[in-house]
Specification:
Length: 379
């Protein structure tokens, strides 16, 4: 009878102690959920409030050992919902610090109580592990077994992700090495080709299939539109740098007919500063000044005087070959013409008054042939 009472008492004691011992084992790992791509610790969200209560209860049971450093809290932060490894690690670090701050405030802990690691894999959460001595967690249950399996799976995921990351880095390094080798081979081939033509230095400095946008310093110019109106027009351009040039064009003509009763005569000079744009330096904008004199008598009344003005210019240079370009340009701005009116009576010019006119609008246009002096030798 006494033996029977002892067995019943032992069974009852086990029934009473089993939940508490199982809870200690289950409470050794705690998981806190986070919203993807965010670092804020929302306590009521995703069951975090329940998990936090369980953790605080366990900390209270072992607080002396935790504060003395004998039983540290292992905090692991995870994030893999952002675009790069650096961003994920930074967010995982923020999440770990938020959980630790909550424990420091609520449980009276300090930073020395924690061992922290952060990971750019395995989801959006933070785990806190309390490694209770084995004698206090001798009894396991289904929940503890499930947590153990989850921990094993998490470690496997981390290992697999780490292997994939290392493999990716190796592939990228190999691709970069092959690209560098191809670039070096192409550069060596260009140098050999340049050496055969006596221009090794020039070709080595240029990418394959391109040419220097400013391969000359001086160019001669002829405005074909002015020549088409029987007005000879010539000029020069000095390319100070590939982007900056100074050009000047001059025109002169003198025609008369009908026993000099009709006349078309003028001279003009137009200096211009240009800024070339783009990879090939084909487009440009500039500023122009224009001055000259004229004498027109195309009807009964002639006009003789001078003009002055200026404005902005723009255009495009079309490459024809190594030595020739075709320059399409247009100038807009202001011109002032101050002139006398006259009539010719018995071969004598008779003055008929003065007049001044201001003009806003197109002041220059051209389709100009450009000969790059020395460009054919440079190539």
């Amino acid at each position: 009878m006494t033996k029977t009472r002892k067995c019943l008492f032992t069974a009852l004691l086990l029934v009473l102690l089993l939940p508490a011992m199982a809870r200690q084992q289950a409470d050794t790992v705690y998981t806190f959920r986070f919203v993807p791509r965010e670092g804020m610790f929302y306590v009521p969200w995703g069951g975090n409030d329940t998990e936090l209560s369980r953790l605080l209860e366990c900390i209270e049971s072992h607080k002396a050992d935790i504060l003395d450093g004998r039983l540290p809290l292992h905090v692991d932060g995870y994030c893999n919902s952002l675009g790069s490894e650096a961003e994920n690690l930074d967010t995982a670090r923020t999440r770990s610090n938020r959980v630790k701050s909550e424990l420091i405030v609520r449980a009276g802990l300090k930073e020395a109580c924690f061992v922290t690691r952060n990971h750019a894999t395995a989801g959006d959460h933070v785990t806190v592990r309390l490694r209770v001595p084995a004698k206090e967690v001798a009894v396991t249950d289904a929940e503890a077994e499930a947590r153990r399996k989850a921990e094993i799976e998490r470690e496997e995921v981390e290992k697999r992700a780490e292997r994939e990351r290392l493999a990716k880095e190796q592939r990228e390094a190999e691709e970069a090495r092959q690209a560098a080798a191809r670039a070096e081979a192409e550069r060596a081939a260009r140098e050999r080709a340049a050496g055969q033509t006596g221009q090794r230095g020039i070709s080595a400095a240029r990418p394959s299939g391109t040419e220097a946008p400013a391969d000359y310093h001086f160019a001669a110019r002829a405005n074909l539109l002015r020549w088409a109106t029987l007005t000879p027009d010539l000029g020069l351009e000095w390319r100070i740098t590939p982007s900056v040039g100074i050009a000047v064009n001059g025109s002169w003509t003198s025609w008369s007919w009908s026993n000099k009763d009709r006349r078309y005569a003028l001279w003009e000079v137009a200096p211009e500063v240009r800024y070339y744009m783009g990879e090939k330096k084909a487009w440009y904008v500039g500023a122009m000044f224009k001055a000259g004199e004229f004498n027109y008598k195309l009807s009964g009344t002639g006009k003789q005087g001078d003009l002055i003005g200026g404005g902005i210019t723009g255009g495009y240079q079309l490459r024809l070959n190594k030595a020739l370009n075709l320059d399409f340009n247009l100038g807009l701005g202001y011109l002032n013409a101050d002139f006398e009116k006259y009539e010719v009576i018995d071969g004598v010019r008779v003055r008929r008054g003065n007049e001044t006119k201001d003009w806003w609008g197109p002041i220059n246009a051209g389709v100009t042939l450009v000969w790059k002096i020395g460009a054919s030798r440079a190539h």
